[in-house]
């Protein structure tokens, strides 16, 4: 057998091979072209797509353009104006740096560049087909650059076959377009698809304004501002309250030094931050900028540059966690709470005696004074008696810094009950509809967690111990798990047969009827029987109990109790959802209302 000759591949072949790495589909072309436009300092980026990008992707910018010489050079593989040396990779501030995108794209398409620098009188047009330069000529054109990429993979049939349907390819492009628009609010973006302008976003001064443009004011109002600086690390952006959640991660945009990025550690930190507020299969909405010195991050993991690695992943993870925690949880509660009073504790969440009270008078100071909740001793900030004074805050708990968002409201006034159940509130920036059962579920859950963290929760002895007759399987699981039940604060003894004597209930539960509680607990212990050994399983079982109990106390609540509920919810670490992710409140901002009524600010 003859020795096969080793050949140096021609540039042409290399470009075609490299194209496979950098350019997978029309969306990759779109991405490379828009990134180049951003790198060129454009203030306006106009994009056009035909047939999902299979027929054409055209990007026009008003950036710094190229001289004829540079335009020609830009098509050479590894031609870049952005780095000169390997060391420069450590300090990249631009989106591109490999200098292979244009060459790769031009190798597998019908390619046209028109470009002019502002200082030049005339521009340059280049036409390339399948990597062969067909024409170079002078042309009159506005300053900036237009790049047209038509018939992608026309000369690589194997690749063309792998393109997805037009709508899938277009979907990818639109997702990418939105990410660019979010990453660069200062740039105006336009997207035209098959002759129709689909998106047109003017230049904005802030991410918030761009988000409002893209998603609407109502959406923006469900976001909380994230802002954390730790030396050279700056994490900023927005995090959705948990009730704003998605089945996929489409609305999680992570920008590392302005580049759309993924990194397992970031995904993990986000998931952890929402752990006790979202069901496992739901994903929060987050728009996060992670700005750090370029040499902290390795963007050279993959040619399409989406996945990044951090030099100190743990630091990034912890910082994201802290940043989201601060954004989503009231700042004043991150301070250690004063020591709880011993049991019996206040029971602010009693079931309402008597019938429904359809119309609540506006809360007034003449309401009977409320016992402060032991774990949330901060006095109520409503009714709307004007902004709270510094004297409202007991010593030891610093007032929340005003630049942080905290809780769903600062001031809230109960307007009434609607739908026989929901509490209508007016807050400083809008209306809130609160589901009291869901609110109660959240409050109880946090109390339980706080108490469990400090050991066995306080037990509240019943005035009259109660005997409860259980079903045989309930009784079986209770007998097997008496220790766990006691660890939760239940005073419970077997009482012969399938009966149990309840002498005390966990104090954090407030005022609830013992019998349904015991049945609920037995069922939870039963379902959790195989997993109950871990603290996490115990916690889940607890959360489930809370849910059931709260759901069972859906009776109408007297004004004083409602008022306390509103205050307690305001002071929750995560006031927006139940431990299972069901919303506790729905917010309708005044801004959104004005918009709905066609009033412009
Ligand atoms: P990279 O972006 O990695 O440098 P590319 O192949 O994408 O490599 O681009 C090669 C070079 O062409 C860039 O470094 C830049 O100098 C120039 N270039 C590409 N697109 C534009 C544009 N829209 N405006 C001005 N210059 C551009
Ligand atoms: Mg580039």
Plain-language structure description:
With 601 residues, this protein is of the alpha+beta class. It has 17 helices and 24 strands. Helix 9 runs parallel beside helix 10 (313-328), helix 12 (472-480) packs across helix 14 (514-527) and helix 14 (514-527) packs antiparallel against helix 15 (535-552). The longest helix has 18 residues, at 166-183. The radius of gyration is 31 Å and the shape is elongated. The structure holds adenosine-5'-diphosphate (ADP) and magnesium ion. Adenosine-5'-diphosphate binds at residues 32, 36-37, 40, 61, 63-66, 74, 79-82, 96-103, 145.
Query: Please, how many helices?
Result: 17
Distance N to C terminus: 82 Å
Q: Going across the major beta sheet, what is the strand order?
A: 5-4-3-6-2-1-7-8
Any ligands, ions or cofactors bound here, and which?
adenosine-5'-diphosphate, magnesium ion
From the helix content, strand content and strand pairing, which structural class follows? alpha+beta
How is the main sheet built? 8 strands, mixed
Looking at the structure, what is the overall shape? elongated
Kindly state the percentage of residues in helix: 25-40%
């Amino acid at each position: 057998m003859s020795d096969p000759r080793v050949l140096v591949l021609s540039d042409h072949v290399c470009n075609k091979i490299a194209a496979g790495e950098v350019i997978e589909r029309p969306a990759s072309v779109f991405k490379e072209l828009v990134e180049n436009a951003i790198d060129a300092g454009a203030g306006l980026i106009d994009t056009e797509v035909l047939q999902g990008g299979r027929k054409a992707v055209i990007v026009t910018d008003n950036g710094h353009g190229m001289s004829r010489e540079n335009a020609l050079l830009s098509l050479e593989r590894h031609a870049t104006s952005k780095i000169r040396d390997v060391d420069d990779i450590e300090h990249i501030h631009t989106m591109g740096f490999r200098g292979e995108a244009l060459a790769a794209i031009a190798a597998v398409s019908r390619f046209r560049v028109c470009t002019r620098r502002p200082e030049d009188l005339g521009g340059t047009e280049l036409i390339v087909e399948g990597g062969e330069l067909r024409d170079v000529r002078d042309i009159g054109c506005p300053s900036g650059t237009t790049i047209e990429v038509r018939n992608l993979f026309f000369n690589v049939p194997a690749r063309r076959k792998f393109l997805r349907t037009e709508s899938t390819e277009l979907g990818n492009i639109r997702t990418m377009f939105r990410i660019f628009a979010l990453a660069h609010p200062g740039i105006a973006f336009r997207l035209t698809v098959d002759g129709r302008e689909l998106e047109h976003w003017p230049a904005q001064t802030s991410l918030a304004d761009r988000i409002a443009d893209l998603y609407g004011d109502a959406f923006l109002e469900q976001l909380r501002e994230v802002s954390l600086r730790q030396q050279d690390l700056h994490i900023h952006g927005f995090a959705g309250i948990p009730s704003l959640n998605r089945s996929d991660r489409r609305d999680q945009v992570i920008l590392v030094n302005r580049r759309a990025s993924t990194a397992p550690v970031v995904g993990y930190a986000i998931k952890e931050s929402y752990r006790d507020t979202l069901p496992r299969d739901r994903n929060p909405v987050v728009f996060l900028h992670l700005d750090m010195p370029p040499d902290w991050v390795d963007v050279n993991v993959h040619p399409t540059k989406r996945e990044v690695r951090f030099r100190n992943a743990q630091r990034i993870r912890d910082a994201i966690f802290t940043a989201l925690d601060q954004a989503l949880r009231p700042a004043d509660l991150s301070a250690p709470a004063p020591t709880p009073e011993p049991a019996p504790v206040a029971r602010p969440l009693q079931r309402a005696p008597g019938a429904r009270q359809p119309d609540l008078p506006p809360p007034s100071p003449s309401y009977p004074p409320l016992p402060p909740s032991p774990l949330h001793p901060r006095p109520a900030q409503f009714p709307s008696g004007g902004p709270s004074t510094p004297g409202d805050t007991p010593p030891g708990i610093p007032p929340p810094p005003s630049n942080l968002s905290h809780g769903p409201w600062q001031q809230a006034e109960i307007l009434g009950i609607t739908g026989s159940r929901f509490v209508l509130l007016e807050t400083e920036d809008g209306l809130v509809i609160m589901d009291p059962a869901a609110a109660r579920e959240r409050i109880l859950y946090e109390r339980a967690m706080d108490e469990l963290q400090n050991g066995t929760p306080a037990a509240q002895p019943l005035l009259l111990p109660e005997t409860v007759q259980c079903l045989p399987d309930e009784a079986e699981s209770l007998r097997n798990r008496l220790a766990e039940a006691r660890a939760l604060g239940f005073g419970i003894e077997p009482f012969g047969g399938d009966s149990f004597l309840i002498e005390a209930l966990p104090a954090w539960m407030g005022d609830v009827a013992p019998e349904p509680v015991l049945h609920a607990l037995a069922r939870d212990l039963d379902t959790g029987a195989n997993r109950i050994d871990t603290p996490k399983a115990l916690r889940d079982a607890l959360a489930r109990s809370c849910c059931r109990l709260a759901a069972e106390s859906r009776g109408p609540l007297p004004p004083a109790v409602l008022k306390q509920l509103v205050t307690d919810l305001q002071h929750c670490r995560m006031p927006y959802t139940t431990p299972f992710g069901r919303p506790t409140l729905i917010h309708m901002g005044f801004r959104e209302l004005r918009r709905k009524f066609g009033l412009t600010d």
